[in-house]
Model the fold of this input.
Amino acid sequence: MNSPANDADWLYYVRFRLTEVVMIESRGDSYQLLFKACPAPILLASHYRHGSIVIDGILNPLSPDKVFVIQPGQRVEIDYPFIGQQILYLFYYEMSAGEGSHIGADAIRRLPQVAAVSSQEQLLGLCQKIVEHWHTDDAADRLASEAGFQDLLHLLLKRQGWYGDVLEQVRLFLERHYTEVITVDYLAGMAGMSRYYFMRSYKERYGQSIMEYLTEIRMNKAKQLMEEGFVLREITEAVGYKDPQYFSSQFSKYSGMSPSVYVANRKERIAAYSWPNIGHLLSLQIIPYAAPIDQSWADEYRRKYRFDVKVPLSHDYDFNRQALWRARPDKIIALEEMIPDEEKARLQQIAPTLFLPWHSADWRVHLQMTAKFLNREAEAKKWLARYDEQAAAIRMKVPTDFQAGAWLILTLCPRGIKIWGRRAGTVLYDDLQLPCAKGVEQIEFTTFEEVGQLGRFDADVMLVHVLKDAQSQSLWQKTRLSEDWGRLKPVCHGQVLQTSNAAWMAEPILEYTANRQELLLQELDQLFSAL
Done:
């Protein structure tokens, strides 16, 4: 009998056997390297806190309603953004093919990497059952544990799980039919939802609109075809567009560069060793060949450039060095103070390396040094001139009441209220020439303050950014209702501006780059234009 042809029937031919159960308990905000190379297939679930799981350099949200399939050899990192109890369940298992089946060793890869379940309580109940019966040294209890594992697989693989989720079905449809003319109304009808409810549900689930995802699919396919040498007209038709000029404009809007510039730049392999290096390269219209894209605020980078970053880097020197030796980049950009001297010497053996002085130079100097190292000085000069023109135009839009007042920028995140210092807020304080609040000069990047301490800054205007996660939103509601908040001068005078929830504003330290300064400038342009 041959192996099954479709994704549903293959389950008839595969057997799953639980081999080991591990429960990891922790408390506190922490980063943990779970596996440098996972030794066996594992199902991983978390009990309490939300956080992040990075699998082979790719970040995914970690929450109690998801199960992750970890494959042998994969690198797995866990990060929790706030303090609290956490339990991880790790279920090691084996897969084997039934008698008469021709299913090979790749059968494990038929399992999706992540599954969201409809019943969090049922999932965690099964996890607890598996753990409870596994460690009793009783053969009968082992059977109960094994039965719980089979029930867990059933929960994950049943149609109302992986195969039956209507939003996942819509995504799958787009991946197969992206060349066709597709409307939101058609997709909403496929999902059995109203247009508005479908659009809202999809964006809440995936963090981007359905049409943004369609564009992402088309652009990544276009990039693939460019690498394979297809001409513009062929690519245009292959990814669902009719007019090459319109496709070029859409590609430029999405990627930040024209198709011709994209193709030319991909001939050189540049590694962004440290996170801030990515933003400078993008401003020079270079997409890095190797880079870390595993940060929680990096959704835009991952969506737009995951196809281009062929070599994901991490937080581990050995892992990065081995990855770069295999990739053999033409040049490496890193940060001077972030890497030990012995590691710098090793990087220089791989390729010519530039180490930017992170603390002693500002983002403009970083951009100019990067441009000189890559022979892109003309591009950097042109970019800075355009940026300064934008800043001058936006400065004219700042209302008179706001021009003289002292500004304070803060972000509400799971760890508390984060105050931006002078360097982090350089767009407001230097480029737009707005005065900073008392004490901001003494903060280089960021610091945390309680709401009761905000008054000491004596600010006249506050720019507030609230992260999208539940903890940050809850903190914002609590803060707004507090008496301390109500007594603040900007609150009393109605001079509190709130940003649009852009994820990249979460980390002004690691986003101290040319690319992000321009995005913040554009964000402020929208805010001031609406006043």
Notes: The longest strand covers residues 14-27. Residues 1-8, 159-164 have pLDDT under 50 and may be disordered. Residues 139-157 form the longest helix (19 residues).
